[in-house]
């Protein structure tokens, strides 16, 4: 049986998210379903330097606390690649000469309509981005070898789901999971 939406109403909306409540009929009968829709797709960047280290940003998230993540952010209506390039520069102070599209993900697909695009950046140049990092809430930029990053995931020290998904896509592209 497919889902049928009988009615919908907006519960909350701002420039980043739209929250609605749907009256639905699904496989188990009638019910209410809450859905969060991101206004624009998000982008995630796995930036890999010549020493095979990945660029991470460390910050404090209001919802979950301390977090170690790949540079990421909203596309604000831009082309995803343009947004990825901007986010890498703003959050980490890094530019890249090579960009590879790693694929698309969906965040929290049980409750959200949140498209995400993942890129691999290589040929990196580090610049100064202290001002934009403060504005973005970035406490530190850390460079971690690929294998060590995977160990941090296994240890539960990297818990951001999108970062874990982005690392998996990068690992597949780079042949690290054979």
From TrEMBL:
**Lineage start:** Bacteria, Bacillati, Actinomycetota, Actinomycetes, Micrococcales
| Matches recorded under Gene3D superfamilies | Nucleoside Triphosphate Pyrophosphohydrolase
Supply the alphabetized keyword list.
Hydrolase
CDD domains for the chain: NUDIX_ADPRase_Ndx2 (cd24161)
Database matches in Pfam families: NUDIX
Q: Source organism's superkingdom? A: Bacteria
Q: Where does the signal peptide begin and end?
A: none
Coiled coil ranges: none
Q: Does the keyword Hydrolase apply?
A: yes
Q: By what name is this protein known?
A: NUDIX hydrolase
Report domain Nudix hydrolase positions: 38-166
Task: Please give the Gene Ontology molecular function terms for this protein.
Answer: hydrolase activity
């Amino acid at each position: 049986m497919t889902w049928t939406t009988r009615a919908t109403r907006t519960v909350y909306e701002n420039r980043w998210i739209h929250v609605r409540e749907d009256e639905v009929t699904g496989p188990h009968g009638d019910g209410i379903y809450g859905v969060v829709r991101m206004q624009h797709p998000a982008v995630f960047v796995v930036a890999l330097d010549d020493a095979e280290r990945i660029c991470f940003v460390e910050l404090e998230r209001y919802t979950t606390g301390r977090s170690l993540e790949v540079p990421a952010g909203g596309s604000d209506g831009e082309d995803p690649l343009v947004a990825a390039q901007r986010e890498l520069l703003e959050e980490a102070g890094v530019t890249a000469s090579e960009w590879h599209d790693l694929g698309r993900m969906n965040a929290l697909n049980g409750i959200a309509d949140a498209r995400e695009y993942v890129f691999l950046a290589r040929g990196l140049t580090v610049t100064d981005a202290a001002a934009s990092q403060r504005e973005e809430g970035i406490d530190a930029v850390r460079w971690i070898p690929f294998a060590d990053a995977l160990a941090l995931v296994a240890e539960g020290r990297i818990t951001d789901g999108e970062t874990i998904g982005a690392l998996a896509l990068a690992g597949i592209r780079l042949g690290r999971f054979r």
